[in-house]
Amino acid sequence: MRFNRAVRSFSDPVLLESGLVRLEPLARHHADGLAAAAADGDVWRKWSTSVPAPDEVPAEIERRLALQRAGTMAPWATCLPDGTPVGMTTYMNLDAPNRRLEIGSTWLAASAQRTAVNPAAKLLQLTRAFEVLDCIAVELRTDWHNRQSRRAIAALGAKQDGVLRSHMLRPGYVRDTVVFSIIASEWPAVRLGLRERLGLPREAGGAPR
């Protein structure tokens, strides 16, 4: 994994990569690949997630880039090691003064789900959050009805903080949002667990240099 300690802004675009996944700063050239990813398994049709339809991907990229320019989001295209886009993820709800952020607005093509892609991406994002940006807490949120997402977040080692009832208006219903978090004191154990899950050596899990 490669990180740059000189990059301190929560919303700065930065490439994060390992041998398992590449998180490329989101750009317009990712549109075709992300449209294909959204069509993979028709993940955009699942009602408990917020995945753009294939023809809506360019507009979603523009929306996320506008939030990045405003300093409120750091968006990535989630890619395979060969650069093939398979989804999106972000840092959002950035709170630099309190050294907190949320990893969210994440989705993956059906073929990339239940593989090493998600835990490897989260390892990269969490390592940057805790070891480069010096966060004291990282949140992860999901729809109450998205049981697959809830299981995946818990499997990372995050703890459930609670449920925000009637939190968001969604097409056809009002969403209850489940809030999870990882705090700085928990990060070493979470990191070890993720590295073991991915078959990575324990001794390589320290702070980047």
Description of the molecule:
By secondary structure, this protein is of the alpha+beta class. It has one domain (about 15-200): 3-Layer(aba) Sandwich (Aminopeptidase). Helices cover about 30% and strands about 30% of the residues. The protein contains five helices and eight strands. It has helices at about 30-40, 55-70, 115-130, 145-155, 185-195; strands spanning about 15, 20-25, 75-80, 85-95, 100-110, 135-145, 160-170, 175-185. An eight-stranded mixed sheet has the order 1-2-3-4-5-6-8-7, with helices on both faces. Strand 3 and strand 4 (about 85-95) form a beta hairpin. Helix 3 runs antiparallel to helix 5 (about 185-195). The longest helix is centred in the middle third of the chain and has 16 residues, at about 115-130. It is globular, with a radius of gyration of 16 Å. The termini are close together. Mean pLDDT is about 90; it is low at about 1-5 and about 205-209.
